Amino acid sequence: MTYGYFADEQGNRQLLVNITSNPQRTFFLVIPPFHPACYHDFHNEQRLLEFETRLTACTNAVVIDWGRMTYPETSFLDTLHLRKEAETDLSQKFRDKINDILRERKQPGI
Q1: Would you say residue 14 lies in a domain?
Q2: What is the DSSP letter of 4?
């Protein structure tokens, strides 16, 4: 299997339009944890970083890159899916992260 960033340019443009057209909203974009095997011979990493930079330039977009978050290999069902226990842990971390960001922005939490 080949892993990497294979852009849907039309989808990327539409996402940026949606974000910039709605400055009153905060967009949370999360790159979830992947099994370490996904990063062996990862394709187009520079293009991914460039797109992340374009996203983070939007003041109402928050990119949370947890792609390389450390979970033991046994926490994965496969290269893309966490087991239930790790999933629950990730959900709580995500909720905490969102609340921290909203608090910094003086917005109500979830």
Answers
A1: yes
A2: B
